[in-house]
Design brief:
The complex is a heterodimer. Chain A is built from 14 helices and no strands. Chain A is an all-alpha fold. By secondary structure, chain B is an all-alpha fold. The chains are: A mainly alpha, B mainly alpha.
Chain lengths: ~325, ~400
């Protein structure tokens, strides 16, 4: 167990270094000289040197990378190029609770609906329930979230026009508050984002459940006359859920990229929207910061799911 | 899954038998009694051919797969849809620009369809009276603010957008962009995936290790995030630096090259991993061993014996990857990081129409529905190909 975790942890460090390095290199070799752009027509060699120093851009490559890595641990991503003297973290700070709220609710809702749907499909395998369920899930799995977002908006708009309802199609209420008007803003994006993880989870749960139902111990349990309910819920289900723990990281990845589109389409003030705004002004530190933050979140999600896997499945210890 | 490697031959045989048995129809000819010349004297040429025909070889595994694919209605319908879209993108604009009469534009003067049916022509002033039923799709606000917009008519088959640009023309250009990007990415994906995958699988060692570490990093990194990073940082540079490249650089498409490279960069490790797995299996098989015993060089074994056998896995993986590529390009353009105006892309059309979704839902529905159909077609085709080429993968 400990050995496994150490191995995993070393792998994690490898991956984080890789991810941060790719991100850093992108920014380092970015076209144009940001300080030069900042000064514009008021170019002055002394000021130029000062600014370069303030941004740490006069340092050699590896020292810049080291500073970048050090900054990550303190959530210090340097200064913004666009808003002079403003730390990148201040720009992202407002967006984090909003994005986190959207993402976590979607993850929760996706799991809450996806797993039972998968179980239902497996129990009714090859009946019409299973077939329609899997057909719907296949469509959801193939399509990107922004397509659903657009369809949702169009439908809401049509309902609003023809019934006079005032359901909003954009914006976000107060983060982490759930009055009725807040909920109206939030339900749509959260449900749509949940679809991204839901489809994947449903397919996986079904496969996993079918696999377990074919096992000998299930047959034994049936043979000794246990009630079907006991066989399914106490024997099969608990084993079928084990592999699901591993997809936490993957659905986190789906949800992270999904937030970018939903924040763009629904005009939600999260970090995705802040990052996209930064691309307009070539504010590279903001882009780098977001990418590293989200990538590290996904990587850590993967690690957590690995640890959970060893906890729920004792057989892993031996490997 | 675990028995798959060991019993592969067994499994392959068992699912082949019912079909291949048919072609070896029982023919009882006593060739020792009748010589060729005897037959020739008694039978006509056609009958002679008939006699020799039944001896043809049983279907190859590839032909078997194609037969399974042809029986899959959903996959065949998908192929039809894809072919339709490809033809529409390639020849549609050419035909469309020859349909329609001369129109007296208040700004541009008399112009023919070769002008107003281009994807970038803006027809800003015109406003038409429309039949009342079409207003069903429009709110009161939308009716008041028609501006340069037009609903579908004989002149503009799918209407025009807020700048008076023909939606059908933009749509065809958008599909062309999707296909171009998918092709570009697939060339790199398949090329790099096969090269690295075969080398890693066949030789193992350092290349294998590097590939494994590299794939770990790429898989941990959400692909789209990387593409957003790359196109966010390099997009503006591409706008000026790459705009001289013909076709792909013109009309605000310059960023596509950057987006394509990024898409290919995150796609190929998966292909390499599939290829590596298949190569590991093939390497142990007897025909490779036979080739090696006969003194064939490693390079020749890879080129002549391994790579042709990767066909099925590569075609399935690349079809499924096209789904991701089309979504990726549309998504990046939707976020404003891909194709720039006056160019057109499905994603850009969605993002252009998005602010007016409350008043003009038609404009956003057209590109979204087309993208949905296109993506689903590739997705179903990929599923069908997988079932046809690798029947064991099905539960």
């Amino acid at each position: 167990m400990v050995q496994f975790l150490i191995k995993r942890f070393i792998g994690l460090i490898f991956v984080i270094i890789g991810v941060t390095f790719i991100t850093f290199v992108m920014g380092y070799f970015a076209p144009g000289d940001p300080v030069r752009t900042m000064l514009g027509n008021h170019f002055d060699p002394v000021l130029y040197a000062q600014l370069k120093h303030a941004y740490g851009l006069d340092q050699p490559f590896w020292i810049q990378y080291w500073n970048f890595l050090k900054g990550l641990f303190r959530l210090d991503f340097g200064l913004s190029y666009e808003y002079v003297n403003e730390p990148v973290w201040d720009i992202l700070k407002q967006g984090v609770p909003v994005s986190a709220e959207l993402g976590l609710w979607a993850l929760f809702l996706g799991t809450l609906v996806g797993v039972p749907l998968g179980i239902l499909s497996a129990l009714k395998a090859n009946t019409w329930i299973d077939t329609t369920n899997m057909a719907i899930v296949l469509v959801m799995y193939s399509l990107p979230v922004f397509v659903f977002a657009v369809f949702f908006q169009v439908i809401i708009v049509e309902i609003d026009t023809h019934t006079g309802a005032q359901w909003p199609v954009a914006n976000w209420g107060n983060p982490w508050q759930y009055t009725w008007s807040d909920l109206q803003f939030k339900i749509g994006p959260i449900v749509i984002l949940a679809l991204a993880g839901l489809a994947y989870l449903t397919r996986l749960t079904r496969t996993s459940m079918l696999e377990v139902l074919r096992q000998d111990f299930v047959r034994t349990a049936r043979a000794k006359g246990l009630r079907e309910r006991v066989v399914i819920y106490r024997h099969a289900l608990r084993n079928a859920l084990i592999p699901l723990v591993t997809v936490l990281g993957l659905s986190l990845g789906l949800i992270v990229t999904g937030t970018f589109f939903l924040e763009d389409i629904f005009n939600i003030p999260g970090i995705g929207a802040a990052t996209l705004a930064a691309t307009q002004y070539r504010d590279y530190p903001v882009i780098q910061a977001t990418v590293v933050l989200l990538a590290v979140a996904v990587v850590i999600g993967n690690l957590i799911s690995d640890i959970l896997y060893t906890l729920v499945d004792p057989r892993i210890k031996n490997t | 899954m675990d028995t798959r490697d060991k019993n592969q031959d067994l499994a392959a045989e068992s699912f082949m038998t019912p079909d291949s048995g048919m072609s070896q129809a029982p023919i009882e000819m006593n060739l020792t009694i009748l010589t060729d010349s005897d037959i020739a004297t008694t039978l006509g040429d056609n009958e002679l051919k008939d006699l020799k025909e039944p001896l043809k070889k049983p279907a190859t595994p590839f032909q078997e797969s194609m037969r399974r694919l042809r029986r899959d209605k959903r996959a065949m319908a998908s192929i039809g849809i894809i072919i339709f879209f490809v033809l529409l993108a390639l020849f549609g604009p050419f035909i469309y620009q020859h349909i329609g009469g001369i129109y007296n534009s208040p700004i541009a003067g008399p112009i023919g369809p070769q002008v107003y049916h281009t994807f970038y022509h803006q027809e800003l002033t015109r406003q038409d009276e429309l039949p009342s039923w079409v207003y069903y799709f429009y709110s009161d606000l939308g009716k008041a603010d028609m501006q340069a917009r037009q609903l579908p008519s004989f002149q503009y088959w799918l209407g025009t957008d807020q700048l008076g640009r023909d939606i059908l023309a933009r749509l065809m250009q958008g599909i062309l962009i999707s296909i171009t990007v998918a092709l570009l990415v697939e060339v790199v994906d398949v090329g790099a995936g096969i090269t690295v995958g075969v080398l890693a699988g066949y030789n193992g060692g350092a290349i294998d290790q590097v590939l494994a570490r590299f794939t770990d990093i790429i898989f941990a990194f959400p692909g789209l995030l990387f593409i957003i990073l790359v196109s966010g940082i390099w997009g503006e540079w591409a706008d000026t630096a790459l705009s001289n490249i013909p076709i792909i650089g013109a009309n605000g498409n310059a960023r596509l090259l950057v987006v394509s490279i990024a898409l290919a960069f995150v796609a190929w490790p998966l292909m390499a991993r599939y290829v590596r797995g298949q190569t590991l299996q093939l390497k142990e098989q007897q025909f490779i061993e036979a080739a090696r015993t006969a003194g064939t060089s490693d390079f020749r074994i890879m080129l002549r014996h391994i790579i042709p056998n990767l066909f099925s896995i590569v075609i399935v993986a690349s079809t499924l990857n096209i789904v991701g590529t089309i979504i990726g390009e549309a998504g990046i353009s939707l976020l404003g990081l891909g194709v720039q105006p006056p160019g057109s892309s499905i994603g850009l059309m969605i993002s252009d129409a998005q602010p007016q979704v409350a008043t003009h839902p038609w404009e956003i529905l057209v590109p979204t529905v087309v993208l949905t159909i296109f993506v689903l077609a590739f997705s179903f085709l990929g599923d069908g190909l997988r079932d046809a080429f690798d029947p064991r993968s099905k539960d």
